[in-house]
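go over this record:
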Amino acid sequence: FREVKTVVLNGPTGVAYARAKAHESVSPEIEIIAATDGDTFLTKKWLEKLTKPFENERVVATGGIVYFSNSIYANLMTLSFFFLDPLLKMNHLFYFWGASHAFRKSVYEKSGGLEKLPEIKEELGLHYWVDDLYLSLLLGKIGKVLPAKNSVVWTMAPKLSARQWLQRGAWQDEDRAKIFKYFGLE
């Protein structure tokens, strides 16, 4: 990695605040910001594969495949998300997950980034931050957001009961629908 930086967050808690602070602290000469989560295991050449789509100037963001090392249910969600959802919806809309994504810094700055998300979360009554979905759709208004299907990471899914997974899934679906509506993508 050319530059790896640890950012200490002194302020509001939440993943959206942490990511926004990290994105804003990147050196001016950096053109592409790649991000992952602290509990994520990167595969060989993850970064190279994640950033390859940027060879096309119209690409503004990419996302890799996220697998879960401890949950069959979560892996079924991953397969559905990357392969089944786009086919069923026929809208070819892709959005990245926070555990594996990259974007052009200039486009992030032009879009306003995650600055408005706390207000939007409160206004829409979201259960989760959905910062990855929000940022994907925001950047997608400016250019192409593409999957980097050969870029794979492994992470841990929360340890939840089947009932908790169903509730979490319902809340995530509800939040996703609200964000899509916010962007006029119903």
